[in-house]
Amino acid sequence: MPRQEAIWEEGIRVASALEAAGHEAYLVGGCVRDRLLGRELHDIDIATSALPEQVMALFPKVVPTGLPHGTVTVLIGESAFEVTTFRHETSYSDSRHPDEVAFVRDVKEDLARRDFTVNAIAYGTNGVMIDPFGGQEDLKRRIVRCVGAAGERFGEDALRMLRGIRFAAEFDFEIDEEAWRGILSQRERLQRIAMERVGSELDKMLAGLHPSKAIRLLRTSGLLAHAKESLYPPLPAIEGTEAGWHRLDRVELRWAAVLLLAGADSAQADDWLRKLKFSSRRVAEVSAIAALRGYLDESRKPIDRERWTAAVLRYGVKSAADYIAIARAFPSVDRSQWDSGVGIERADVWLREMSAATVKELAVRGDELVRLLGREAGPWISEELNRLLLLVALNKLKNEAQALKAEAKRHWTDQNV
Ligand SMILES: Nc1ccn([C@@H]2O[C@H](COP(=O)(O)OP(=O)(O)OP(=O)(O)O)[C@@H](O)[C@H]2O)c(=O)n1
Question: Could you tell me which residue ranges the CCA-adding enzyme C-terminal domain spans (predicted)?
């Protein structure tokens, strides 16, 4: 049985065990939606009339992941199932952990608290669906519609506005008129949402199937202008197809593409990503790519092999290879004034021909230069190693101890005549 099917079946077994103990239980939320859409399932959520302590008594391996919110994680083999007591919440600071929760008796009441109709379908162990808000119909019509009044749903949790845009982009659905009006009228409420949560939604949008659509909806809604911390420059206008995004497989490259298309320099890229609370590794990776572009932009002379190689040595082979990948996907990102006949493809060949990219790879060490030249140690060592590295990287000098030493000696002698 394929793994997806196996997880689903296992979820049904968990629900059946709850039923056998006299409770009601359904598979709910994203897993039902994704299964109906034929998409890959992530995690299986189960809603039940059983109280958390009853769930805990029933399964041998359980983790009380969110008892005040009625959630217990049931572990079976490698899989984890989130089992949550039917509930109704009135106030949120986090979708997984609403601030105020009341347990309810009826699955329909539980479904009524959910954000969108396509997320408010319950799947019973007998295969019958409980779908009081027309979620299946909306899946067919390809519409993102709120459960009940959009204003109320977004009022409860403003992050839902971003979720709505994410689902519309990811599934290539339309946002229904009332939900769209709700976004326009409630968008100031995004200010209340922690930037981590905004960042995580944006990240999913970019990593998904249709980043262009997500960016277009974000721009037309004006939503991001209302985030707690202001993000500058604003998102770029991106027309045309999704093809460029699909050439960029890692989400870091997609972030770099967005920011370069928006015209961000490295300080602005750094600022955006920090505000969204991304890891410092990611911030550094993206801003190095922006810094490399800045370095090429600033070049007063047309960019030739030497200038390009100097840029690669300064910002690293990885940033250079990433820059090339982004410029191939989105040619307007590369604003460099290349020497005649040169462009990003030639730069890629040069990059691959480089025989060393860091001083560590050189066949000579600083202390050897000190002994060879009889000079006192100082900042000249790293300057000299970098000069030798550039010559090696340009294939003007062999990366062999003898050749490197001879060149260092010649240079030192030339300087002293
Ligand atoms: N702000 C939120 C977050 C979640 N939900 C409900 O809780 C379910 C599970 O939420 P979550 O796991 O965050 O999202 P999924 O819908 O499963 O989608 P994805 O996994 O793609 O984020 C959703 O389907 C929805 O019914 C909600 O009503 N409001």
Answer: 248-406
Stretch 176-192: mean pLDDT:
97
Identify the band that residue 98 occupies on the pLDDT scale cut at 50, 70 and 90: confident
CATH of the domain at 3: 3.30.460.10
Ligand 1 centroid to Cα of residue 169, in Å, is 16
Q: Is residue 218 part of a domain?
A: no
Whether residue 33 has pLDDT greater than 90: yes
Q: Indicate the helix (H) or strand (E) that contains 326.
A: helix 317-329
Q: How many domains does the chain have?
A: 3
Same structural domain for residues 347 and 380?
Answer: no
The structure's pTM equals: 0.94
Same domain, 30 and 89: yes
Nearest residue by C-alpha to atom 1 in ligand 1? 95
- 88-114: average pLDDT: 83
For residue 111 and ligand 1, the question of a CB distance below 6 A is answered with no
